[in-house]
Amino acid sequence: MDISKFTDKSTGRLESISGVPGVTHAFVPDSLPPEWCWPERLWPLLVEARTALGNLDGTAKHLPNHQLLIRPLQNREAQKSSRLEGTITEPEKQLIFEIDPKYPSSESDPINAYREVFNYGVALRSRYYSHEKLPLSLRLIRELHRILMDGVRGAEKDPGSFRRLQNQIGRPAHFVPPPPDCLAECLDSFEKYLHEGNKYDLLVNAFLVHYQFEVIHPFRDGNGRVGRLLLAIMISEWCGLSNQWLYMSAYFDNNKDAYMENLFNVSAKGDWETWIEFCLIGVIHQAKDTEKRCDALLGLWNRFKDQVKEIGGSYRLGAIVDELFVSPVIRIPHVTKKYDVSFPTAKADLEKLVEVNILSPAKRTVQITYMCLDIINITYKDN
After folding, report:
1. In which element (H, E) is residue 59 found?
2. What single DSSP character describes residue 34?
3. ∠ at Cα 127 (121, 133), nearest 5°?
4. pLDDT one-digit tens code per residue, 291-328
5. Do 179 and 26 meet the contact criterion of CB atoms below 8 Å apart?
6. CA angle in degrees (0–180, nearest 5) for 253-255-260
7. Which of 58, 161, 255, 274 is the most exposed place for a label (fewest CB within 10 A)?
């Protein structure tokens, strides 16, 4: 970490450390809220971001079934957030993995990548399905981390436990988070702000907290993904959305250098303004992008329903179509089990959907597998 880049406007202090090759100092952030006055020039951008977010939520509220469209968006977020950390999987192969998920057998097992993306989706959905609605807290953050690291490489690094060792971002180190003996102090003030912080607009507040979490980097591994999970939850709940409709990982991934540089410049130069401006532009972009995807998915759902009616499809066939929006990959044994029908009947149902181009047989799979390429393209294709 180049300590010469830290100015007298830095948002924390540099602490001398030893025992880490090539690293001489770590950064300990000041507690939130920052000593920063909201600039008037950002008001129009905040209004535009809030409007875009409201329009997205308004569109989403009129969907016939939230769960039909939220799952594709969550699948996309899981892949984009994992990609930011260098974990890249092909959408089709990832979806096939998710209908029969497995644990990797070793650190080098290729399944690690698919399991990591799978775990991210599970962590996203855990907030929605949880019977015990934990408040935004360190306990919730530890639980998200535990789910994220379940059975994958790095799982030996204390899933659900805060680190007791020094870590760094990048090799050589681009940034060095607080030393372990400062972690309790940082996390205590972080949690207090989660509960009490309301100095700024709550959308802005979510990005202040996201910065703080990433700078503290409280786990040995998985910090970036947990931080983006928490960000999605904060935006949804603090901004009163009807569900987790907005995810930022695609924007951060497409602007990775600016994302990392703006985070660093808050620490080194106290440049909150550029960081918040960058994030609000991202909200506008992601909200509009998500609204287009929702419209496209809803249009596709209506088209599929009409096609099923035209071929005289049964209620079961319509239900199978609905399922495709939750998981656009399906196998015959699943249909036999869920709908209590014979293998030939289930196969005939899926072949009917192939005939009208709703499904396509997947290539090079051990079991006969069908997938809906239209849903996959809308969900994963970058506009």
Report:
1. helix 43-61
2. P
3. 165
4. 999 889 889 999 999 999 998 878 899 999 999 998 99
5. yes
6. 90
7. 58
